[in-house]
Amino acid sequence: MAVAQSDIADHKSQLVRDLQSILPAESVLHRTEDLAPFECDGLSAYRQLPMIVVLPDTIDQVQAIMRLCSTAGVPVVARGAGTGLSGGALPLDNGVLLSLARFNRILDIDADNRCARLQPGVRNLAISEAAAAYGLYYAPDPSSQIACSIGGNVAENSGGVHCLKYGLTVHNLLELKVVTVDGNLLTIGNRALDAPGYDLLALMTGSEGMLGVIVEVTVKLLPSPESARVILAAFDDVERAGEAVAAIIGAGIIPAGLEMMDGPAIRAVEDFVHAGYPTDAAAILLCEVDGTEAEVAEHIDAVTAVVEREGATDVRVSRDDAERALFWSGRKAAFPAMGRIAPDYYCMDGTIPRRHLARVLKGIYALSEEYGQGVANVFHAGDGNLHPLILYDANNPGELERTEAYGGKILELCLEVGGTITGEHGVGVEKIGHMCLQFNDAERDQFHAIKAAFDPHGLLNPGKAVPTLNRCAEFGAMHVHNGELPHPELERL
Amino acid sequence: MAVAQSDIADHKSQLVRDLQSILPAESVLHRTEDLAPFECDGLSAYRQLPMIVVLPDTIDQVQAIMRLCSTAGVPVVARGAGTGLSGGALPLDNGVLLSLARFNRILDIDADNRCARLQPGVRNLAISEAAAAYGLYYAPDPSSQIACSIGGNVAENSGGVHCLKYGLTVHNLLELKVVTVDGNLLTIGNRALDAPGYDLLALMTGSEGMLGVIVEVTVKLLPSPESARVILAAFDDVERAGEAVAAIIGAGIIPAGLEMMDGPAIRAVEDFVHAGYPTDAAAILLCEVDGTEAEVAEHIDAVTAVVEREGATDVRVSRDDAERALFWSGRKAAFPAMGRIAPDYYCMDGTIPRRHLARVLKGIYALSEEYGQGVANVFHAGDGNLHPLILYDANNPGELERTEAYGGKILELCLEVGGTITGEHGVGVEKIGHMCLQFNDAERDQFHAIKAAFDPHGLLNPGKAVPTLNRCAEFGAMHVHNGELPHPELERL
C-alpha cells in the first residue's frame, strides 16, 4: 500500500507541475492548508478536500486546464462562489477544483439591447448595481445574491423571491460561452430572442457543472419598475393562507413575489430582526406588486380584497420604500434566524403544484411529529416552491440522520402530488437518491446519453445530479429498508 | 435495376403489412393518390411523396410504430398540421410520414394551476378558445394559429405577435410526453416551475422532429388581460420608425406586441383589406399594450409621447375592440396580400439585435436592387425578428433561384450584426446551409452528439435542421462560387 500511496503522490506532483506550466505558481494550490477553504459549499454537512485547486483568470487558461485534465483523465469540479445548497461544488479527492473566482469583471452593459455580458464570477447583486445607472436591473434574486456568482446561478438555474413574475435564471439568459471537457470553446444561444439548432442554452442551465465550464454569461436586463409595494397579510390558519395564495393567482394577478411563512418561522424571525410581524399568526403572506404607480395601486386594492375575503386577520400595505424593506427584512433573515430556535437547520427545497399547498403542509407537520424534529416553513408560495427548514442539533447522536430521513420523506410528498424534488437549489450530492424516484429508467438513460454527448469519459463533476444505475439500486434497497412507498402520511390527509 | 425496384416494392409491401398489424388498414396510406396531400408543408417550393403515411390515434400505436421503424431502419418524419415554413415536415421517399392529426383532443384544463394538457394535434387557437371559459388564454400566437397545431409549435418553437412580452413556445410550456426513436415514452419537464436533471424540455422544443415524437403537451395559460389597445404610428422614413422601436423599449415599456410594416407592405395590405393604413407612409408601427385599464392608459400616453418625439407623422389609438381588430387586420393579412403585387413571395425569417434595425433594412433594400427582386417588410420589430417577403414570379426562369440567393444574403446580413438565421420558423431544409455559417465545427459537432444521444442511427427526420460535415463542405463551395463574405453591402452602410 505504501507503493500505491507514493504513486498517488507522484501523480499529483506531475499534475501540479503541468498545471504550473499553464498558470502562475500562486494560482495552483496543492497544500492541505491552502485547499481547506474549498472543502465544501453551502451544504456543509458534506466535506472533502480536493487534490488540487486552480484559479485561472483567462478563458485560454481554462481551455488549457481542460485539455490537460482530459488527456490525463483527471476529474474536474467547477466552482463559483460556493454558496450552493445541494453540494454541487463538493470537491473530489482525486480531482481538480476549478475556481472561477477571478473571472469577476462586468464586460459590457448594453442598455439599448437591455443585456449585460459578464464573467462567471460576477456577483448576482453586482449586476443590478451596475445596471442601475441605466434604469435597469437583473431580475433573479436568490437569497444569497450578495455573495453568489452568476456562473453558479446558471449552473444551478437559481431562482429567488421574484421568479414568480420574472422567471428563473434560464428565463433571463441570452448567451453563454462554455469550455468543453476537451478544451473547445462553444458559444451557446444568441443575443436575439431565439437561436437555431438545439437549445443548448437551456440544457446547459441547471446542468450543475456536468456538461461544461461556463466562462462567460450574457443576461437580459429589465427596466426597474416605477413602483413596488408589499402587502403583509396574517392568517390564523395555515390552510387558509394556502387558499389565499391560490385565490390571488386565480384573480389574474401575477405578483412580483408571493411568499409565505408559518408560525414557527414568523416567531423565530420576529425575535431576530423585529420586522413587526404578528407573532400570534399561524401564517403570513408577503405579496409584492410592481409596475407603474397606477398599476400597483390597482393590484394592491385587488390583492387586499382577495386576502380579506379569504379570512386574513390583519392586512398591512407598505407606505414607502422603507416600510417595504422592513416587511422584507424578516423574510430575508429567515434562514439565519433559525439559529434562535435550534443549533442547526437543514433547508429543504421541493416544488409542488400550488393547489396542493395546504395538503402538503399538513403532511410536513405530521412527519415532524413522527420524526420528532421541529420544522419551520418559509417559501415561495406563488410558485409552489417549498423551503421547509428542519431543526436539529448535530451534537445529538442520530439527529442529522433522522433529519435527512425526514427531509427525504418531504421530497417524496412533493413527488406524490406531481411536484419535483428541487425548485431552485439543484440536486448535487444531496438529492441524487431521490432522482431515482422522480425519473424512470428510460428517462435516466436519456440523461446519461446527454451527459455522454458532452463528456464521454465522465470527467466533469462526476457523482452529482444524475444517479447511475448502481446508485439507484442501492437507493432502492436503502429505501425499502427505511419505509415503503406510497406514504401513509398522504393517505391520512 | 428492375430487380432493385422490385426489392424496394417488396420492402414497402412488407412494411405496410407490419404497420397494418399495429393500425387499422385505413390508418396506413400507401397509394400515390393518398400520399399526395402530404408531399409538402407550408414551404411548398420543396415537395416529396413519402413512402407511407401513418395516422395513429393512441400513444401505444406511436410507440409500436417507432419500435417497428427502428428495428427495420426506416426513417420517420413526424408532422402536425403541415403549416411550417421551413420544410421541417418534408417527407422522405424511403420514409414513413407519421401524422399526429388524430391526436386532436384537449385532455384537461386546470384553471387553478393555469395549465392545459393537450394532444399534439390540437390547433393553437383552439387552446385559447377552450381556456376562455376560465378567463385564461395561451399566449404564443403564430400567424397560422387557426390551423397550426401545438405539437408543431413545440417542434419549431413558434412565436407570434405577442412573444415580445409573453415569450416563444418554449417559455410557455410545462411538460411534454415524447416517444423516443426506439419506442420508449419519456415525461419531460414538470407542472412545477423547474424540474431537476438536464433541461430536456427546452432541448426538445424547437428540435424540429430530430429528437423524438411529441405525443402530449402541457402548456401554461395566462389570465386574459382586462384591457388592450393599439397605437398606429406612421413615419415618412423607415430609419426613424426603427429608432422609435428602440425608443419605446428604451422607455421601459414592454408592449404586448410591436410590429412594423414598410411602404410596399402597407400599400399591398391596404389595397387588400382596407384597414385604413396611411398609404403614403414609409413605415408604420403597430404597438399593442395590455394590462389593467389604468396601466394601459398610462402606457398609451407614454408610447404616444415617444413616437411623437421620434417624428411620427400620424398617430392613432384604437378606441374600442372593433378598431383594435381593424388595426390588426392589415398586419394579419400581410402575407396573403402580397398576391396583389406579385404572383409569388418567399417569406424570410431572421433575427437581429433591435438597434441594427435601420441598418439591416437599408441592406435589404440595397440587395433588392442588386438582385432585381422586389421586397416588402413585415416584422416583429420589438424583438428584431424580420420577415422580408421577397416578391417573384415562379414562371419566369431563374427568378426562384435569384430569390433564394437574395434570401441567403439577407440571412448573412443578420449574422453579420450578431443575429440569427431564424426567429420562429425553424431551419428545416430551407436554411440548413446557413447553419454552416452560424455555427463553427465544434458547435455543430456538439449538435450531432446531442442528436446521437437521442437517435444514434439518425432515423428521426434525417437531413433537416443540423447540417452534416459534407453538407457544409458543399455549402462552402457553393457559397464561394456565389460571392464572398463579408458582404460589401454592409460596408457601404
From TrEMBL, chains A, B:
InterPro entries xref list: FAD-bd_oxidored_4_C, FAD-bd_PCMH, FAD-bd_PCMH-like_sf, FAD-bd_PCMH_sub1, FAD-bd_PCMH_sub2, FAD-linked_Oxase-like_C, FAD-linked_OxidoTrans_Type4, Oxid_FAD_bind_N
Gene3D superfamilies in alphabetical order: 3.30.465.10, 3.30.70.2190, 3.30.70.2740, Uridine Diphospho-n-acetylenolpyruvylglucosamine Reductase, domain 2, Vanillyl-alcohol Oxidase, Chain A, domain 4
Oxidoreductase among keywords: yes
Keywords, sorted A to Z: FAD, Flavoprotein, Oxidoreductase
Matching Pfam families: FAD-oxidase_C, FAD_binding_4
Ranges of residues in domain FAD-binding PCMH-type: 46-224
PROSITE patterns on file: FAD_PCMH
Domain of life, source organism: Bacteria
Annotated coiled-coil segments of the chain: none
Essential cofactor(s): FAD
This protein's name: FAD-linked oxidase C-terminal domain-containing protein
Native source species: Spectribacter acetivorans
Biological classification of the source: Bacteria, Pseudomonadati, Pseudomonadota, Gammaproteobacteria, Salinisphaerales
